Every structure is written in structure tokens, then in C-alpha cells.
């Protein structure tokens, strides 16, 4: 399984895009992706499979109550985000599940059982 990492120069220059950190764990039965999305609601997150890629995306908006006045320090991130993870061949795409709790998105990617192969008869 490989990760597509964003161009770091782009992430520094465009404050309207951000890239949530994630962990990828593999066990015998599944891969588990945990994405850290503090301050994001479940409705602001999309999880899709496109061809052989898991895509986590969404958008956060700046709090409207601070529209007036000056912001002196802004360390929280706003704008759109996307993370794409190339899926290995042994993932059961139709059985992928996701849950969102306390700012952590957990995506479970079950593995398909290994095929023992079979002998092909030549006719």
C-alpha cells in the first residue's frame, strides 16, 4: 500500500488547502486508516473509492463569529482537504467501512482471502 503525499511547497503557499495527518495499520485481516480531523463534523467529510484509490476529502469553513475585528493568531486550518491512498489488490472494496468519532475518522479495509490458485487445463 502506498501513500500519495501532497507537494509540501503547495501546502505552505496555499492556506486554503490542508492535509490531515493519518496512520495506516495492517493486521492479518484488514488495513485500518485513521485520519485526524479536529473541529470537523461527520457531514464535512467524504470517503470514496475511485478505481484503486481510497480518497478522504472535505472542507472546513472559518467560524463566522470572527468575521468582524482582527485575528492576531491563526493556527487552525480552514479550507478543503484531500488525502488519497492507493489500495492494494487484496482489499475487499465492497466491504470497506468508516466511522467518525471525536475528530478521528477510522476507515477499515478488509483483506480478501488469499487464493490458493488453480490448475488450468489446456484444451
Automatic annotation (TrEMBL):
<keyword id="KW-0346">Stress response</keyword>
<comment type="similarity">
    <text>Belongs to the small heat shock protein (HSP20) family.</text>
</comment>
<protein>
    <submittedName>
        <fullName>HSP20-like chaperone</fullName>
    </submittedName>
</protein>
<feature type="domain" description="SHSP">
    <location>
        <begin position="13"/>
        <end position="123"/>
    </location>
</feature>
<dbReference type="Pfam" id="PF00011">
    <property type="entry name" value="HSP20"/>
</dbReference>
<dbReference type="InterPro" id="IPR008978">
    <property type="entry name" value="HSP20-like_chaperone"/>
</dbReference>
<dbReference type="InterPro" id="IPR031107">
    <property type="entry name" value="Small_HSP"/>
</dbReference>
<dbReference type="InterPro" id="IPR002068">
    <property type="entry name" value="A-crystallin/Hsp20_dom"/>
</dbReference>
Amino acid at each position: 500500500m502506498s501513500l500519495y503525499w501532497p507537494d509540501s511547497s503547495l501546502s505552505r503557499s496555499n492556506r486554503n488547502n490542508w492535509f490531515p495527518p493519518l496512520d495506516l495499520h495492517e493486521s492479518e485481516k484488514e488495513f485500518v486508516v485513521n485520519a485526524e480531523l479536529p473541529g470537523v463534523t461527520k457531514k464535512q467529510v467524504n470517503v470514496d473509492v475511485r478505481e484503486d484509490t481510497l480518497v478522504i476529502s472535505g472542507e472546513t469553513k472559518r467560524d463566522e463569529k470572527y468575521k468582524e475585528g482582527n485575528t492576531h493568531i491563526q493556527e487552525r486550518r480552514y479550507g478543503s482537504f484531500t488525502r488519497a491512498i492507493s489500495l492494494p489488490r487484496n482489499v475487499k472494496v465492497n466491504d470497506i467501512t468508516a466511522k467518525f468519532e471525536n475528530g478521528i475518522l477510522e476507515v477499515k479495509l478488509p483483506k480478501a482471502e488469499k487464493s490458493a490458485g488453480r490448475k488450468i487445463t489446456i484444451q
